[in-house]
Amino acid sequence: MISSLRGSVLHVSSDSLIVEVGGVGFTVAVPPDVARTSHAGDTVALHTHLIVREDLLSLYGFASREELEVFTILISVSGVGPKSALGVLSALTAEQIAVAVANEDDTPFRKVSGIGPKTAKLITVQLAGKIAPPSPAAAVASGAVAPDVATQVTTALTGLGWNERTAAEAVQQVAAEASAAERESVQALLRRTLAALGPGASRG
Fold first, then answer.
1. What's the CATH code of the domain at 97?
2. Residue at 204 is within a domain
3. Above pLDDT 70, what percent of the chain?
4. Do the domain assignments include residue 203?
């Protein structure tokens, strides 16, 4: 297994690099941000994953160990191949993926080329518990409510009579329009969600 490469960049394309290590040039598929910031003659260090097929060896490289770990988890999902996994990491950061998974939100994955609704849902389900939860700052920056806040507000609403699904959906909808401070406060988000649901809302 080739777990990492450190060497000189010989050639850069939109989605790959040729990296020379000890006189040998390795073609490495990389996310667009890595390709954009690399230039011929640069020294790069990449965390890599080697995929072996009957007639092909493919090497995928990432700037951080975190991205590599997310890539490895993604390709374990049914229907997600290496190119689709690289596409996800090209469109979303590791933190954004963690936020989406924590909130069971498959919408960001549906926007990735080659990822359909069924596969997007599988990603959120199968990555649950396998990917590190997002930091509170990342959850707020993404426009999503932090998982612990969402859970507490949802629990409070179910205690007031709303069913769990209605409560959870309302929390996410309200959070999308709330300020960063409100998304961090259980009390503030609860008040806004109650106002959105309204006294006459169905609790069935």
1. 1.10.150.20
2. no
3. 89
4. no
